[in-house]
Amino acid sequence: MYPTLYHAVLDIFGIEIGFFKIVMMFGFFVALGFLAANWVMTLELKRYEAEGKIKAFQKAIEKPNVIWEYFTSVLIGFVFGYKMVYLMLNFGEHSGNPQSFILSSEGSWLWGILLAVGFAGFKYYQLRNEPAFVEGQTRTFHPYEMMGNLTLIAAITGFAGAKLFHHLEYFSELVKDPMVLFRDPFSGLTYFGGLLGGAIGVIWYANKHGVKWKHMLDIGGPAMMLAYGVGRMGCHMSGDGDWGIENLSPKPGWLNWLPDWAWAYKYPGNVHNIVLENPVWPTPIYEVVMALIIFGILWSIRKRFVPGILFSIYLIFAGFERFLIEKIRVNPDQFNNIGFTQAELISLAMMFAGLVGIFYFHKTRPQKEVVEE
After folding, report:
1. Chain mean pLDDT for the chain
2. Hey, which residues does 280 pair with through a beta bridge?
3. Which of 109, 153, 282, 364 could form a disulfide with 201 if both were Cys (CB 3.0 to 4.6 A apart)?
4. How far apart are CA 80 and CA 260, in angstroms?
């Protein structure tokens, strides 16, 4: 397993790049997942605009807020110099746990000030060479241009939702030690919470920019499934503990073609340094495969339905996939009295919502809606 990108590059390519120790493997794949979703959604927004389902519009060019422009440039430059340059120059001292350094107050005031001045100078050069501002001037804004901000909003609201649902799932631990919220803010993330939080943020922002919520749901469904599959690769590669229950069964003969680690695995060298006595089901790998297959199905049928139905199908697939994998996945027993985990209950709710959604969106479709076969 590879706790960080450093370990992966060293093992696969034999190249030692110390600075890569700061890049956690799970976080690396989460970032790749966001990029994959961004790419897919950009393609769909362009297609929707070309088909006339969403439209570009004239957007007023706002007068630059010079004070804010300088403030953000100076802040970014200072933080980069204070933290990152200092870390690069003193990496040997912090190579064991660079993440703790990032969250500490240690750094270089000298490099922070130097880069703050440098960034401010570059911003001055940019502003000086920009065309003069003309009151009332507009430009054509295409919906796909919002993807940068949309991705950022999805990351923020998704992170908040993932943290919230995780602590609801392990509520007893939160009651015993409330400081767990702040001690390790980047661990303990729940997919369904991230899905809900991210969806709320994305729909709100897209609606502000003229994209109807039904269209945004359909655009986001395949993208979320692809991002989920990529993210699960990070779970497996890092060994983040999101694996299955013990698997002591011998591999069936008809699966001789399957690598042994894909049947049962001990996740050696995992990010938590947990030593497993017995091999477990490598459930993240199974979810990667299922997610990519589901993405392929959703992508192939994305032009066939009235708005809203594709997302409803996504809910059914995503709920079924997660409900299925929960049967062999390590889970807390917080719902033992009713025989379901939190994820299983949410999965059932997703499948039910998907079925209701198909009925609702089909029933309320506009009569003039043309469905491409």
Report:
1. 86
2. 246, 265
3. 153
4. 44
